[in-house]
Amino acid sequence: MTARLTVITLGVSDMKKSIAFYDALGFKRKMHATGEAVAFFETGGPVLALFPWRDLAADAGLPEHPRPQAFRGSTLAWNCGSRDEVDAALTFAVRCGASLLKPAHQTDYGGYSGYFADPDGHLWEAVVAPGIEVGDDGRVHLPD
Predict the structure, then answer these.
(1) Is residue 36 part of a domain?
(2) pTM (2 decimals)?
(3) What is the CATH number of the domain that holds 101?
(4) Are residues 102 and 133 in the same domain?
(5) d(Cα 135, Cα 125) in Å, to the nearest integer?
(6) What is the span of the domain harbouring residue 48?
(7) Same domain for 56 and 19
(8) Alpha carbon distance 110, 10 (integer Å)
(9) What is the 3-state secondary structure (H, E, C) of the chain?
(10) In tens digits, what is the pLDDT along the chain, a chain of 144 residues?
(11) C-alpha to C-alpha distance for 89 and 75, rounded to whole angstroms
(12) At what angle do helices 15-25 and 83-95 cross, to 10 degrees?
């Protein structure tokens, strides 16, 4: 058996607001029959799912509170093909309702990145990194 990453599920406080945010980013919502119980989006890779925070905590057997308000030890990434694309991605995300956390900057590894947070504080990095190619299909292609 080989492990696969097929779905990333984010716990959210306000389904309507989060659905609107990810829709504005341009992800295509599928399976509308689920209403606001759960929302699924095609991303060009793993599926993104939104699930009410309290229900996700209960499903995992964890308490709903306390909710982390700071760094959670993970980020989602939007790999870009150029510095200009990173800047455009950050501007676009903020226009869609994200909060800019760290403006784009030159990194110590030779890349260029900035951070934004979705309406529930889930961190996203917009980044161009040396050695990581973003193809015409928008997918990341890693060297061997």
Answers:
(1) yes
(2) 0.90
(3) 3.10.180.10
(4) yes
(5) 18
(6) 7-60
(7) yes
(8) 30
(9) CCCCCCEEEEEECCHHHHHHHHHHHCCEEECHHHCCCCEEEECCCCEEEEEEHHHHHHHHCCCCCCCCCCCCCCCEEEECCCHHHHHHHHHHHHHCCCEEEEEEEECCCCCEEEEEECCCCCEEEEEECCCCEECCCCCEECCC
(10) 898 889 999 999 999 999 999 999 999 999 999 999 999 999 988 999 999 999 999 999 999 888 877 788 899 999 999 999 999 999 999 999 999 999 999 999 999 999 999 999 999 999 999 999 998 888 888 888
(11) 16
(12) 150
The candidate with the shortest Cα–Cα distance to 48, out of 69, 74, 62, 28, is 28
86 with 116, same domain? yes
Same domain, 84 and 128: yes
Asked if residue 42 and residue 13 are part of one domain, the reply reads yes
Number of domain units in the chain: 2
Task: Give me 114's structure tokens.
Answer: 């900035």
Same domain, 135 and 82: yes
- Identity of the amino acid at 107: T
